[in-house]
Specification:
Protein name: Threonine aldolase
Family: Belongs to the threonine aldolase family.
Distance between the termini: 94 Å
EC number: 4.1.2.5
Number of helices: 16
Strand order of the largest sheet: 2-8-7-6-5-3-4
Helix content: 40-55%
CATH superfamily of the largest domain: Type I PLP-dependent aspartate aminotransferase-like (Major domain)
CATH architecture of the largest domain: 3-Layer(aba) Sandwich
Radius of gyration: 28 Å
Largest sheet: 7 strands, mixed
Order of helices and strands: HHEHHEHEHHEHEHEHEEHHHEEHHEEH
CATH topology of the largest domain: Aspartate Aminotransferase, domain 2
Shape: globular
InterPro entries: ArAA_b-elim_lyase/Thr_aldolase (IPR001597), PyrdxlP-dep_Trfase (IPR015424), PyrdxlP-dep_Trfase_major (IPR015421), TAT_signal (IPR006311)
Number of strands: 12
Pfam family, one: Beta_elim_lyase
């Protein structure tokens, strides 16, 4: 019998060579293309990793968002400071310690009977919607609200609630628009009983534009007359502090439930507070467990928030004064146009001239001042407590050199 092993070896070797050759022939154009593209100066610059930004520290003035990006190291420092001022504040399953104390403070600040700590704002809004709608699973809210546009249809998925959007493209629908939405539901061929109205104010998608209190009063009064419950999505409620005539409890009074965020102005790593009557908040505590929100410890979020609440209204009054001074000086310096947001909270639009825009971001970064990336010639400017870290004259300098 003939031994064919030598032929099998030869065939295998030849096949391997062909496979390697095919791979190299196929890969060569891609490799050459990549190498050629990498040598192109513009594409090479694009491919290069951007230089890391310097870290945000306690000197940074942060106009790029509602609150500065807080590093893990800074969070630890904040925890240490808060623990020194508020020792022995641990909780167990969100009972006792800093969590209970924070709930009591929020209830008092917003003028409500009770308050419940929740891990997220989305959970807070969803529990409010579920509790307020009850058996009447139809809810009306702004088309551009967080509840409708950013919470993945969760009221529908989790609670069977149908959401009816109002006034696309607007932060603050008129009273007539809210009323028309209710009448539309009530006067269909098969009428719908509206269970709740949710109003977000200030509105994230509209640069912090808020709903005037006069509209809030009229809408809530109309809703009450029809047996419709009302919810205030006040995630950014603290961003209105210091505006003329604004008071947390006064603005919250017409609503059945209120949500406020813990990290928008209070430097907590997460969390939100839901407020209302004792009966409704007892329901919220039960549902918090059902929906997986009963975490073992909440002090990690509650403690820094509790610490930040001390003197918060006074600080926001000062920072609003500082922001107005900066705006006035930018206008008087020339080369900057200021666009104010209607019923504003803590945001304005800065439009530099072409000459002012040249090198602006580099100068500000060198001065440890952060801004958002310009879009269509405008910079969205957020003011927060970091504006109080340095004199306005010092902050202004890199804008006008």
């Amino acid at each position: 019998m003939r031994d064919n092993s030598q032929y099998r070896t030869t065939e295998t070797t030849m096949a391997d060579a062909i496979n390697r050759r095919s791979f190299l022939l196929a890969a060569a154009p891609a490799a050459l293309t990549a190498a050629t593209l990498a040598q192109h100066p513009l594409l090479a610059q694009t491919a290069a990793a951007p230089a890391p930004l310097p870290p945000v520290d306690d000197r940074t003035v942060y106009f790029a968002s509602d609150y500065p990006n807080i590093s893990p190291e800074e969070h630890i420092r904040m925890f240490t400071t808060a623990l020194a001022k508020h020792p022995g504040k641990e909780d167990t399953y969100l009972k006792g310690g800093a969590v209970t104390e924070l709930e009591q403070k929020f209830a008092a600040m917003f003028g409500k009977e009770d308050c419940v700590f929740l891990p997220t704002g989305t959970l807070a809004n969803n529990l409010a919607a579920r509790i307020l709608c009850g058996e009447h699973k139809h809810l009306i809210t702004q088309s551009d609200s967080h509840l409708y546009a950013d919470e993945s249809d969760s009221p529908s998925i989790l609670s069977g609630i149908t959401m009816q959007p109002v006034a696309p493209g607007k932060a603050a629908p008129t009273f007539e628009e809210w009323e028309a939405a209710v009448l539309d539901a009530e006067h269909r061929a098969y009428p719908l009983k509206v269970g709740a109205i949710s109003m977000e104010s200030p509105v994230r998608r509209h640069n912090g534009e808020s709903i005037p209190f006069a509209i809030v009063q009229k809408v809530c009064a109309m809703a009450k007359s029809k047996g419709i419950a009302t919810h205030w999505d006040g995630a950014r409620a603290f961003m209105l502090l210091g505006t003329p005539g604004y008071d947390l409890a006064h603005y919250a009074a017409p609503f059945d439930t209120v949500f406020a965020s813990l990290y928008k102005a209070l430097h907590a790593p997460f969390g939100g507070m839901l407020m209302g009557t004792k009966e409704k908040m007892a329901q919220a505590r039960d549902l918090r467990h059902v929906f997986g929100g009963l975490i073992y410890h909440g002090w990690v979020a509650a403690l820094p928030a509790l610490n930040a609440l001390d003197g918060l209204p006074e600080r926001w009054s000062k920072l609003r004064t500082a922001a107005e001074e900066l705006i006035a000086k930018l206008q008087s310096a020339g080369g900057y146009t200021i666009e104010r947001v209607p019923n504003e909270s803590n945001i304005f639009l800065l439009k530099p001239s072409e000459a002012r825009m040249k090198g602006l971001q580099d100068r500000l970064l060198a001065a440890d001042i952060r801004i958002a990336a310009p879009r269509n010639g405008s910079i969205v400017m957020y003011f927060n407590e970091t504006i109080l870290r340095r004199p306005i004259a010092e902050i202004l300098k890199p804008f006008v050199v």
